[in-house]
Known about the structure:
The structure holds two protein chains of two kinds. By secondary structure, chain A is an alpha/beta fold. Chain A has two domains: 1-45 and 60-66 and 284-371, no CATH class; 70-246, Alpha-Beta Barrel (TIM Barrel), CATH 3.20.20. Chain A contains 16 helices and ten strands. In chain A, the strands form two sheets. An eight-stranded parallel beta sheet of chain A has the order 1-10-9-8-7-6-5-2. In chain A, helix 10 links the parallel strand 6 (202-206) and strand 7. Chain A starts with 7 loop residues before the first helix and ends with a helix. Chain B contains nine helices and five strands. Chain B has helices at residues 5-17, 23-33, 38-58, 64-81, 108-119, 133-143, 158-170, 188-194, 203-214, and strands spanning 95-100, 123-126, 147-151, 178-182, 198-199. Chain B has a five-stranded parallel beta sheet, sandwiched between helices. In chain B, helix 5 packs across helix 9 (203-214). Chain A binds chain B through residues 94, 165, 168-169, 171-173, 212-216, 219, 248, 252, 291-294, 297-298, 331-332, and chain B through 19, 60-66, 68-69, 72, 105, 108, 154-156, 158-159, 184-185, 187, 190.
Amino acid sequence: MLKDTMTPKERAAAIAAGKPVDRMPCNPNIANGVARVYGCKISEFNTNAKTIADAQIACYRRFGADSARIFTDLFTFAEAMGAKVKFPDDDTADLEAPAISADVPDSELMKEIEKIRPVDPYHDARLPLHLEAMKYLLDGVGDEMGCSAGVIGPFTNSFFLLGVERTLRAIHKNPEVVHKLTQISLDCAKSFADAAIKIGLTPTISEPMSSCTVVSPKVFREFSLPYLKERVDFIKSKGKGVVIHICGQTNKIWRDLADMGIAGMSIDNVASIKECKALIGNDTKIMGNVDPGGVMYSGTPDEVRLKTLECIRDGYDSPKGYMIMSGCSLPVDSPFENIDSMMNTVRELGYPVDVNKLDAMLADVKKRLGI
Amino acid sequence: MAATKEELLQRLSDCVLNMEDEEVIDVAKEYAAAGYDPLDGILKGLVAGINKASDLYEREEYFIPELLICSSAMYNALDVLRPLIPKEQSGGKCKVVIGVARGDTHDIGKNLVKIMLESANYEVIDLGRDVPVEDFVNTAKREGAKVIGLSTLMSTSMNNMAKVVEMLKSEGIKDQIKVIVGGGPISQSFADKIGADGYSVNAAEAVKLVDRLVGNAEPIPAA
């Protein structure tokens, strides 16, 4: 097996300085699958900060990915704001009940939202645990790689406060309620983003409900964008670049996102790297987008190799940079050999990308797959 | 002057299309009070409206919130019109067991398919979300269903879709019960790979797919 000769930090610094490196940065986006590497149950991430960090570190030592992120699920803010979250023994946490009970009639909603108090990141729910895990992560690998903190976007968080279906409905039937929820989601979580930055991590924003697979670009621009922009501006004001990930199709809102001045746009496998590069490649780094379910989880190592090479072929020459990544967090039981295949493909290719070599590798794997 | 049947059908359709989920109830009541055929009201009014909404969804003019409210409008009016349908007309077609495969709790897509199938007169047994593999198979056997419909939005439950097909095979009843799959991460190639009988890209197509699989498809007219 090929070995990395640089740390992610050395690699990033050399690329920024225009110097040669061992390989292109790569992030398979293993998420809670790190539990499978470390040998713990996913539910341990809900009670043990050291375990969250150690599992990330174990995963980095095993696969050598260029990113480590403290993030367990989408519900940490909503939970701190009163939502009920269920914690399966060995699977990712899920929303059990929104912060605002389904029994509250529409006419009472504004009053009920007023009652939600600002989040204290040092005391509420699992937030202090995550902050502590960030410190352990930095202590463990901070000198080797940039560490990031997962932050849930304000619009998405609103859905967990009011309930997903009720919020979707309210977009048309009760718009001021959605605005109010998103405003308090923005305000409440500001202190968490601030705390993470103080520790030394870089926030990355997950904003899945803003996807064009869920809401229209028009709804995104009215209900999500103004608040998302405020969060991005806040993080930028602290001297950090912001990467945004939105699941599903996002092509119709790339321009809006790039115009916020983000450091990177992470796109899902249904979106096109080529199209993204053409539209916003001059503005921001593009990250993505090997299919996490169809390829990384259920494909073979050669299929992973093919898709990894195809993504790189589409993205490697993007003006503001490109990082090969999975389209979204991997399913927790994604086979290790597929993750290895992605990393080894990138190692074998080297960097800067030699297109002739890339095309030869592509032809070779296509032949093996009989394509 | 009382509204004609055509006017009311148009209004039912428009209410569904335009997300008028409260006004549609009054229109359905007016339609029913006038004594017009309830099945026409459903098929030529409500289903026509939801089909137009589905078209807008495919053209990316409507998205999930809009489709959700359209389907609410349709359900609200169905509650008025469905009890008026004579018994021999409803349940005429076969049973379909439907649910979100274990590993996922997103059920909007599944609910839309259910609405469409019910409107097309199928008897739908809805197992809900995060449904274990064996529940699909056992329910289909017990109810004598001819079709199992599996939905997911998340890649985490794709594996369980494959297991439903495997379980039907190992019990030797795969030929009697058709399996259809759909949802965000699903594709025709995935359906082929796990040995499902069909894939549909959206709820409207799902009805045509079931029609085809159980032999209810209208014959293609000779040219």
